[in-house]
């Protein structure tokens, strides 16, 4: 074969070809001007077929790393196709379905598919096909010649190309590129099919360029894998109804069941299986996307959560006769038996038993005395439309997102002990504010404040604290933001943790954990646990504060309020407001590169006053709903990929306690986390976690800086995981082999939708 290098010209072009060809025969063409893809492709075909008289063209784009035998395969497929009347071109498959294919048997195989199926990253074409559509290609060239091809999807060039499509009897809503016009020209000429390789014999590298997206996005859609073995026989076509097609379907079915068993604990249902097989044999199944969909499904998350507690099937044989049946817990809507963990005092709750004392309390009497300080006192006090019945105010902050309020606020009303606190709804005002509060309070005592103007978060938070502590004289503020769907005992937990914090001069606030690390925690033993962590650790989506802490930082909060008062808070990160707030930070001895929000200023004010810690719940007792709004301007998928959707749904079975550094509870927490990290690695990578990673995870975990959701995504997105799945899909996963030997099928129903 003769090798040509056709390099487009123009200001952005490479000065010289960057690869040493080591004396190999080739022709190098560097165009003087920038042809852009449309004219460049037309030029190549005209040069190869019209000027130089070649019989076949094999084209490889710059961003395609091809298999050593890819060109040989295209040549072989061209030979098979030339005498057919329906095949217009041959191509390397752009999709990676190798997980579902016996690579040893089908490395030389191809499928006869629709001419429009797949990208033309590497393809072959015979001169007879070119001649059949040459007049059409010339018309496309005449329309785009001399135009800025980057404006292809905008008028006037878009309108001109769409006019050509209509004139040629093609749909005008198809992509307008030269490749799209090529395949539709072949289709109009009667070439309705292409041959495409079964295996992907190239690795796509072009995550930047025409795709205009990140590397992660491209490889999430197309994957990185290409077949790296040898093509061991001449090219052949898997014909419909043939024995080869039957074998292909049988292997695909077996491996789809294997994949489902590994990730969902059950076989693929018949409807999904039929859909997958139909798409597979016409090269429209994207195996990479299928795996991503399974891994991001709620069913997979529920299965993983259950198996992280009980062990995966490959572990269960070892555990027979050794495992002690633990107490029942409700996890993710499923009733599961948790592993029994023994602490110095057996604190595992018995089913139906009353809540027991915490080993962290000096005595039951001391705990009751501390709780009495925050217990409500009924006071006949009225003023400004507020009836004060308690020393604890629970404030629900909201503004405009009625959809979130409808989901989240009923959980506040249904909270345990809600009758012992005063509920205040503080709704920000302004043009976008909700016309009325969208939840029926069913006659429950509450105070509803709708502000006359738009305070925005900065002033709104300040007004709430000043109202609760300075005006109304409450001892405790518990604040819940509108986009937090809280656990029914979350408010109770905050109250109890506040009691514990009053004897610790370093704790400024208590909060609900914003991170979900439940996979690595024995929820039965630690559902009432708190961690003493750095004051700045985590969002303040649900938190509690005592009046003594407020009074200690009140002058600082007043200064922040004075700076932002009357300003457009949406411009907080732009001058002049940004500069003013940063000036205040420097004046108060705080770093000026921290977030400028009111929550950030609050925790740094506490830190400067000596309150260097917060107590945060071990488990996440809220579900974050706020993927849209002021702080998170991103898609729902991106938000939940970072934070996850899970909230602990079981019962909090004992009084709140703090896991003290060096305690037996901390040791137990670490041991369970270690066991489950190994379990996670074993299931997804086929090995245990290495010592360095383990130490790093544990340090972050105990300081509440480990994001279990993010860790899962990192493991699942790793090349090591992809390779492990690829190998195991062929040989069988350890759990699959064990189940096959025992004749067992593990089934786990998906939990009912929550919220």
TrEMBL record:
Residues 341-353 have a biased composition (Polar residues). Residues 341-379 are annotated as: Disordered. It comes from the Eukaryota. Residues 354-372 have a biased composition (Low complexity). Gene3D superfamilies: Spore Coat Polysaccharide Biosynthesis Protein SpsA, Chain A. This is Uncharacterized protein.
């Amino acid at each position: 074969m003769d090798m040509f290098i056709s390099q487009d010209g123009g200001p952005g072009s490479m000065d010289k070809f960057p690869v040493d060809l080591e004396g190999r025969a080739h022709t190098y063409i560097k165009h003087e001007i920038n042809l852009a893809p449309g004219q460049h492709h037309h030029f190549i075909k005209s040069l190869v077929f019209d000027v130089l008289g070649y019989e076949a063209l094999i084209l490889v784009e710059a961003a395609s790393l091809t298999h050593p035998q890819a060109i040989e395969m295209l040549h072989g497929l061209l030979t098979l196709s030339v005498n057919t009347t329906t095949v217009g071109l041959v191509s390397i498959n752009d999709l990676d379905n190798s997980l579902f294919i016996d690579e040893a048997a089908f490395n030389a195989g191809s499928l006869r598919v629709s001419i429009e199926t797949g990208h033309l990253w590497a393809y072959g074409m015979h001169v007879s096909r070119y001649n059949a559509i040459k007049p059409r290609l010339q018309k496309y060239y005449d329309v785009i010649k001399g135009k800025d091809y980057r404006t292809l999807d905008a008028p006037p060039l878009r309108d001109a190309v769409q006019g050509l499509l209509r004139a040629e009897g093609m749909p005008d809503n198809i992509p307008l590129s030269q490749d799209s016009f090529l395949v539709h020209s072949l289709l109009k000429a009667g070439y309705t099919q292409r041959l495409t390789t079964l295996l992907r014999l190239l690795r796509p590298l072009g995550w930047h360029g025409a795709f205009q997206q990140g590397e992660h996005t491209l490889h999430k859609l197309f994957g990185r894998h290409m077949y790296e073995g040898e093509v061991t026989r001449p090219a052949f076509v898997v014909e419909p109804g043939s024995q080869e097609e039957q074998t292909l379907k049988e292997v695909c079915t077996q491996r789809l069941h294997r994949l489902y068993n590994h990730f969902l604990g059950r076989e693929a249902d018949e409807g999904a299986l039929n859909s997958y097989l139909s798409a597979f044999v016409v090269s429209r199944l994207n195996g990479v996307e299928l795996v991503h969909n399974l891994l991001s499904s709620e069913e997979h998350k529920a299965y993983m959560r259950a198996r992280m507690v009980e062990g995966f099937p490959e572990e269960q044989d070892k555990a027979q006769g050794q495992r002690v049946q633990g107490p029942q817990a409700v996890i993710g809507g499923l009733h599961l038996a948790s592993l029994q963990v023994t602490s110095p005092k057996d604190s595992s709750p018995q089913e139906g038993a009353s809540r027991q004392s915490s080993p962290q309390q000096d005595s039951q009497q001391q705990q009751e005395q501390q709780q009495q300080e925050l217990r409500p006192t009924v006071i006949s006090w009225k003023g400004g439309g507020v009836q004060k019945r308690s020393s604890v105010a629970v404030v629900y902050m909201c503004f405009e997102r009625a959809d979130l309020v409808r989901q989240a606020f009923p959980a506040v009303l249904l909270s345990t002990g809600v009758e012992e606190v005063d509920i205040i709804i503080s709704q920000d005002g302004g043009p976008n504010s909700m016309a009325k509060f969208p939840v029926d309070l069913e006659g429950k005592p509450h105070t509803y404040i709708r502000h006359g103007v738009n305070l925005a978060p900065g002033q709104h938070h300040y007004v709430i604290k000043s109202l609760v502590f300075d005006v109304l004289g409450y001892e405790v503020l518990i604040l819940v933001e509108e986009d937090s769907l809280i656990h029914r005992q979350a408010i109770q937990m905050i109250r109890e943790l506040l009691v514990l914090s009053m004897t610790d001069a370093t704790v400024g606030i208590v909060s609900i954990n914003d991170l979900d690390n439940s996979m690595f925690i024995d929820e039965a033993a630690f559902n009432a646990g708190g961690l003493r962590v750095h004051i700045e650790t985590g969002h303040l989506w649900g938190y509690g504060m005592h009046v003594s802490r407020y009074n200690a930082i009140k002058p600082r909060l007043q200064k922040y309020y004075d700076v932002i008062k009357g300003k457009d808070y949406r411009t907080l990160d732009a001058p002049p407001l940004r500069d003013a707030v940063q000036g205040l930070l420097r004046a108060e001895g705080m770093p000026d590169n921290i977030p400028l929000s009111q929550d950030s200023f609050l925790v740094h004010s506490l830190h400067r006053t000596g309150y260097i810690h917060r107590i945060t719940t071990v488990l996440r007792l809220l579900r974050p709903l706020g993927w849209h709004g002021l702080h998170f301007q991103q898609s729902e998928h991106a938000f939940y990929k970072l934070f996850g959707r899970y909230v602990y749904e079981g019962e909090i079975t004992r009084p709140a306690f703090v896991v003290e550094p060096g305690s037996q509870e901390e040791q137990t927490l670490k041991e369970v986390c270690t066991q489950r990290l190994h379990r996670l690695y074993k299931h997804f990578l086929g090995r245990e976690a290495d010592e360095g990673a383990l130490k790093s995870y544990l340090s972050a975990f105990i300081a509440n800086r480990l994001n279990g959701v993010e860790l899962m995504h990192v493991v699942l997105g790793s090349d090591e995981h992809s390779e492990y799945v690829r190998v195991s899909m062929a040989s069988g996963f350890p759990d699959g082999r064990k189940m096959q030997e025992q004749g067992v099928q593990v089934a786990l129903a998906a939990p009912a939708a929550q919220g």
